[in-house]
Amino acid sequence: QVLLLESGGGLVHSGGSLTLSCAASGTMIAIHTMGWYRQASGRERELVALQPTTGSSMIDESVKGRFTISRDHAKNTVYLHMSRLKPEDTAVYYCFADVQVVDYGAAGNFWGQGTQVTVPP
């Protein structure tokens, strides 16, 4: 019903920068929040950043000062701007969206397929 398509992952050396994109498509009334989670090999999925439609972004302490999040509301797209990347940032990054799909107050969570970010030591 709602598809989140990520792009921009890849390999970047320590200290480098990378920007991820995620575009939402499908039947949607409104998007309340878009953001990013990541999951390193052998680890649990963890929050990276969230950007509500209204209000301030939420950035996890582990990446604060290095990552920023932004949205293009007209394109239903969220970006994750990553700089000064470290090997510990290596993970599969998943786009997340809290989407209202009916015209009453119900919403659901949707996930992208994930995009790999690799930062070799």
What would you say this structure looks like, in words?
0% of the residues lie in helices and 55% in strands. It is mainly beta and 121 residues long. The strands form 2 sheets. Strands 2, 4, 5, 6, 9, 10 and 11 form a 7-stranded mixed beta sheet that branches. Strands 1-3-8-7 form a 4-stranded antiparallel beta sheet, with no helix packed on it. The mean pLDDT is 96.
Helix and strand arrangement:
Layout: E1 2-7, E2 10-11, E3 18-26, E4 30-39, E5 46-52, E6 58-59, E7 67-72, E8 77-82, E9 91-100, E10 108-111, E11 115-118
Parallel strand pairs: 2-11
Antiparallel strand pairs: 1-3, 3-8, 4-5, 4-9, 5-6, 7-8, 9-10, 9-11
Brief descriptors of the model:
4-stranded antiparallel sheet; 7-stranded mixed sheet; 55% strand; mainly beta; 121 residues
Radius of gyration: 14 Å
Largest sheet: 7 strands, mixed
Q: In angstroms, what separates the terminal alpha carbons?
A: 39 Å
What structural class do you assign from the helix and strand content? Answer: mainly beta
Total number of β-strand segments?
Answer: 11
- Mean pLDDT across all residues, rounded? 96
String of helices and strands: EEEEEEEEEEE
Instruction: Estimate what percentage of residues fall within beta strands.
Output: over 45%
Number of helices: 0
Contiguous low-pLDDT stretches (5 residues minimum) are none
Helix coverage percent: under 10%
What best-fitting shape do the alpha-carbon axes yield?
A: elongated
